[in-house]
Amino acid sequence: MKRVTALHTHLFPALGTFDIDGIRMTLEPFQIQQKSFSPKPMMLVGAGPLISAIWKLGDEESGWRYRFNVVRQSAPSGCVTDLFQPVDLIHFVRLIQVLATEIANDGCLTHDVHLMLRNLAQRLNEFLGRAAVETEDETTPNTRNNSQDYQRKDIPHGQATHT
After folding, report:
1. Among residues 7, 29, 79, 82, which one has the fewest Cβ atoms lying within 10 Å of its Cβ?
2. Residue ranges per domain, the chain?
3. Which residue did the predictor score with more confidence, 139 or 118?
4. CB within 8 A of 81, min separation 6: which ones?
5. Interatomic CA distance for residues 108 and 114, integer angstroms
């Protein structure tokens, strides 16, 4: 009688326990653990609470493909979500500017795509600069006035008064 080895298990189509020459044998399903190929991102970028991982896939012969995702990270817990808030919209604009800059800087793009991303990044940078100045002009007077209104010379800064 032949010995049952790993090479001969194909002779026993039914799985389970059986005896061969007084030796109790158990055949269990053999499963190949197939690891899925998940490449690591080439970089992580962010704007405010938004984070994006950028992947560069392919090669020089077949061409490079860039992919990215966007998630929102909560500051206290560090958990991420794909749900966003209205205040995140300005962070999206900044994140698009950062993504366009970083992907364009990688250098493995066609000339036309490289120019388009550089132009996009430059225009968004100009827009964000104007938006920041406009926002600062609207909020600075109130902030300045509030800090001056509540500060009295006879009370050290940071101490509260009770009336």
Report:
1. 29
2. 43-147
3. 118
4. 71, 72, 74
5. 9
21-35 pLDDT, tens digit per residue, is 666 665 555 555 555
Contact between 103 and 54 (Cβ < 8 Å): yes
Yes or no: say if 4 and 20 are a contact pair by the CB < 8 Å rule: yes
45 touches 51 (CB < 8 A): yes
Q: Which carries the bigger pLDDT value, residue 149 or residue 26?
A: 26
Query: Looking at per-residue confidence, does 142 or 113 come out higher?
Result: 113
Characterise 16 by phi-psi region: left (phi > 0), alpha (psi -120 to 50), beta (else): left
Place of tokens 């009770």: 162
User: In which band, very low, low, confident or very high, does the pLDDT at 39 lie, cut at 50, 70 and 90?
Assistant: confident
Name the pTM for this structure. Answer: 0.59
Q: Which helix (H) or strand (E) is 66 found in, with range?
A: strand 63-68
